[in-house]
Amino acid sequence: MGISSSLISSFPNFVIEARPVAAREIEAATGATAADGIFAAGDVAEQWSRSHERWMRVENWANAQNQAIATAKCMAGIETAYDAPPWFWSDQYDANIQVVGNPAGGHEIVRGDVDAGRFTTISVRDDEIIGGITVNATRDMAVLRRLLAARKPVRKSELENPAFQLKSLLAA
Prior knowledge:
This protein is an alpha+beta fold and 172 residues long.
């Protein structure tokens, strides 16, 4: 469903109109659809995932919130592109598990101590990080999310070195 808002001059409220919108009618970065004044965001809106190289629905609270904020700005005439990589997390007993982008889409590098339950996997394709998983490594995830969004080029040899600090890639 897409939502349209139009201001009524005699009463400053929004009229909400819902109608079916085909998934690929949505302009992924702005939420605008082919129908004038109709926008879509959140769980109902497919978006292009650069790391997955395909259209997909990202159904989690972070995406619904952040895509909706960007789409609302576009509705208000403030050009705002939304192209954040998919990200979600879950706490499972004593494990904080976070996933960003496409962790299965490239060459996998494992950092940390899997047996100790504190590690990071990084997926690299064409010298670019396209995804990752962290288990009890929240600082690594904060860096991975920023690297994915910035499309920073990386060297697999650096990432494979346990002494290499991921954070140093942000300064490059």
